[in-house]
């Protein structure tokens, strides 16, 4: 997702900011820009596209200033363009923002009523207007930020400077990460230590609703209500392997944190953020080899894909392990959005049960590696029986990718940890695109519904960054959680396969007893397992099955089970009946599974790490299962 870099010190801000932004390119972006205070006035340079375009514009620009901010943007509100690129400027206020302002429509209407000149389509510019209005009254940037913070709802990290205070930066966050780097008579701010590690090894990590006020080389930290707080300085001594891991203790933790970027990359080829529509890109049902997909005419290929979808009467989803659970989520999506019956099969069972594959069947296979032996055998058998095949893989030109008729990609980047994380969430994002595309192609979804679903999907990467804040929570809770003798994971609807995935992660990593169930099945046997040493992990976002899920949870709690629940927002009911309650942002049911799985990944990771196990390479397991 978006990357932020700021600098205040004696060096050339341009060089440091651009260098830092290069380190953040892995987050994904479509435009970039810098704003540097130069002799009392801000010089702002922005460009659509990659950093090279910005560097070309900056090549002959000279700056005499010592303070500046920079940004790489991935579009959420407003299409990718120079007009929508950061930094945003409003009456001497310069601002960069990562995340999403959920109440931006209310703010925009209020500002327009006041006569504000809004020059972009972004939610970010609106924050600059709010701060500019406040600074007109307070004449103090820190107080202006303090007065603005409570007006914002959403997940955001923001860095701001003001021409009238040429030696001050103010940073604040509520969700996406933001760190302050401390150097010799210089201060840095960034989304990720990776951007700054070449300049300093001393960092302060901002927590939610904390504010950093930087004046000269002095940094002070405050709570949202203005009270000073003491922050711990963390000194990082990275070795080459840690640099490769970007400072994370394990590849798996790094990959968990890469999920917002991975989901953004997964949907980017297929979603138009300006029209909020889906058109699957370069699927290749016309028979082109994988190597030629990029040469396809997108409109012609999409027309062919729509023609295939119109003729489909049944879908089989074939996969193994974590990919199978993603497929189960896909069943709910495709059946409800495209009105096509879907069967989900474990590949090793599908190929040996002599399945009946009727005409006009689409067989969808999911494999991160594209080499999974049972899944490969299943796709070959389906082709022999006359089915149309479509693959979702992370590795282009893998065997499954080459053998399928149509091709979709997770686009999650290399996944080193054996236990899949970002490939799983990327797959669910791609399945959202597929279900929406099928629904529209088959004429069972109207334009308004498509726009609503796409808006929800585009908001997910920013929402994921907020959910990642549970990392510290589980790190602290792991020593208590490991004392349970077992874990029962439960959920309904799309939360049911998420419960199964959560249980699988705990088995894979921590070697603990864990089972995933449909919550409605509790009284059909599993209730017998529950006592005070059994943890109940209930995935219960607010959706049409919420009340029934709560009823199932009460049954489990009455038998003595200790409850860990995941719900939507500040849910007092769940909080009151849970030992641990974890809140996800409000989200459409089609995407809630992408958010609810993150706490389960973090819980498994920290339990395994606390027990001293090798998180990246669990015993007896391999990343790619290429034999039966």
Quick take:
The protein is of the alpha/beta class.
Draw up the topology in text.
Elements: E1 3-8, H1 13-23, E2 31-38, E3 41-48, H2 51-58, E4 67-73, E5 88-90, E6 93-101, H3 104-113, H4 124-138, H5 141-149, E7 154-162, E8 165-174, E9 179-182, E10 187-190, E11 202-205, E12 210-215, E13 218-223, E14 228-229, E15 234-235, H6 240-244, H7 251-257, H8 259-267, E16 271-272, E17 277-278, H9 298-310, E18 314-319, H10 321-338, E19 342-346, H11 347-350, E20 361-367, H12 373-384, E21 388-393, H13 399-403, E22 406-409, H14 422-441, H15 447-467, H16 470-481, E23 486-491, H17 495-510, E24 514-518, E25 534-539, H18 546-558, E26 562-568, H19 572-577, E27 580-584, H20 589-610
Parallel strand pairs: 18-19, 18-20, 20-21, 21-22, 23-24, 23-25, 25-26, 26-27
Antiparallel strand pairs: 1-4, 1-10, 2-3, 2-4, 5-6, 6-7, 7-8, 8-12, 9-10, 9-11, 11-15, 12-13, 13-14, 16-17
Helix pairs in contact: 4-5, 8-14, 8-15, 10-14, 10-17, 14-15, 14-20, 15-20, 16-20, 17-20
Can you walk me through this structure?
With 628 residues, the chain is an alpha/beta fold. It folds into 3 domains: 3-246, Aminohydrolase, N-terminal nucleophile (Ntn) domain (Glutamine Phosphoribosylpyrophosphate, subunit 1, domain 1, 4-Layer Sandwich), CATH 3.60.20; 255-463, Rossmann fold; 469-610, Glucose-6-phosphate isomerase like protein, domain 1 (Rossmann fold), CATH 3.40.50.10490. The protein is built from 20 helices and 27 strands. Strands 3-2-4-1-10-9-11-15 form an 8-stranded antiparallel sheet, covered by helices on one side. A 7-stranded antiparallel sheet has the order 5-6-7-8-12-13-14. A 5-stranded parallel sheet has the order 19-18-20-21-22, with helices on both faces. Helix 10 packs parallel to helix 14 (422-441).
